[in-house]
Amino acid sequence: MSAHCQLTGRKPGFGNSISHSHRRTGRRFDPNIQRKRYWLASEGRHVRLTLSAKGLKTVDVIGIEAAVARIRARGGRV
């Protein structure tokens, strides 16, 4: 599963792990991605979305219909 949010577009960030001796090695900061299934009443079916934790809260605020409309406006597939 790719670590990006369909609604907010959050993707992994990259940086360095720095040890006690200050050696640097590459690392990846992944967003908190969850897969959630929602009932899309307008289409009479369930949709499964890959969302970040902030994306889940956004769906709670604006509703699933508006969230799906935003994803489709960005060119995403639902």
TrEMBL record:
The UniProt record lists the keyword Oxidoreductase: no
An example molecular function term from Gene Ontology annotations: structural constituent of ribosome
Gene3D superfamilies in the record: Ribosomal protein L28/L24 (2.30.170.40)
Keywords, in A-Z order: Ribonucleoprotein, Ribosomal protein
Cellular-component GO terms for this entry: ribonucleoprotein complex; ribosome
Spans traversing the lipid bilayer: none
Entry similarity comment: Belongs to the bacterial ribosomal protein bL28 family.
Protein name per the record: Large ribosomal subunit protein bL28
Organism (species): Streptomyces netropsis
